[in-house]
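Worked example 3 (structure in, sequence out).
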């Protein structure tokens, strides 16, 4: 047992969380308390806690301890191009979009690179905060080519931009390249999202193309990491 004590600790807590005996938001015993309970070393306890964190069961907050995460995460599809309006209709939870900004600006360096623009080129910036179950859990930062999408009003942004582009402008949105990473939360993330002390967010970057292969949109979608799981369907080909 001593050789596998960290696995034993992991299994006990993982099973308790899965069964609902340990509820989301619960603070786990401190490292010292776990050392005494299991008669083991700090290194072994830390191995167990790191394993729980790696499997998405807990979040370790610096100076505060380890807290159980909500395992009832919402599925967010990796493949496909799904708008927030379409996604929120499928998850069956109360949702709302707060439009923070919609205006034309000179493209920041990162957007210049993403959209392959000349320095100083104009882009339409739309920043929206997505609220689900009364918590602000997604920060969407969209950048469009103004020559293609024209002016985007706050009213359009509060609804579905894709619905407007496809049904009103008759654009054919074809495909996207996606990049997913876990990153340290920025000052903007902490100001606009309800992070509750979480130090990192999941960032999905989309490079979106029209049917004629024009790259017309770059999106940085920043998610509270305890609320979503990113899913895909894969088939093994013969």
């Amino acid at each position: 047992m001593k050789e596998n004590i960290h696995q034993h600790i992991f299994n006990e807590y993982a099973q308790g969380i899965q069964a609902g005996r340990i509820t989301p938001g619960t603070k786990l015993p401190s490292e010292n308390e776990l050392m005494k309970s299991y008669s083991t070393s700090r290194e072994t306890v830390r191995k167990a806690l790191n394993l729980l964190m790696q499997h998405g069961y807990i979040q370790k907050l610096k100076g505060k301890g380890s807290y159980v995460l909500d395992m009832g995460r919402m599925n967010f599809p990796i493949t496909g191009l799904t708008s927030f309006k379409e996604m929120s209709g499928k998850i069956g939870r109360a949702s709302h979009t707060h439009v923070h900004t919609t205006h034309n600006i000179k493209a920041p360096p990162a957007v210049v690179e993403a959209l392959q623009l000349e320095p100083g080129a104009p882009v339409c910036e739309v920043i929206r905060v997505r609220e689900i179950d009364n918590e602000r859990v997604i920060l969407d930062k969209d950048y469009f080519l103004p020559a293609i999408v024209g002016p985007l009003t706050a009213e359009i942004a509060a609804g579905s931009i894709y619905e407007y582009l496809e049904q009103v402008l008759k654009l054919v949105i074809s495909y996207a390249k996606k990049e997913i990473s876990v990153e340290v939360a920025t000052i903007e993330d902490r100001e606009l999202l309800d992070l509750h002390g979480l130090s990192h967010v999941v960032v999905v970057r989309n490079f979106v193309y029209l049917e004629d292969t024009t790259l017309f949109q770059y999106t940085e979608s920043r998610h509270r990491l305890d609320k979503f799981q990113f899913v895909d369907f894969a088939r093994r080909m013969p």
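Notes: The chain has a mean pLDDT of 87. The first helix runs from residue 5 to 18.
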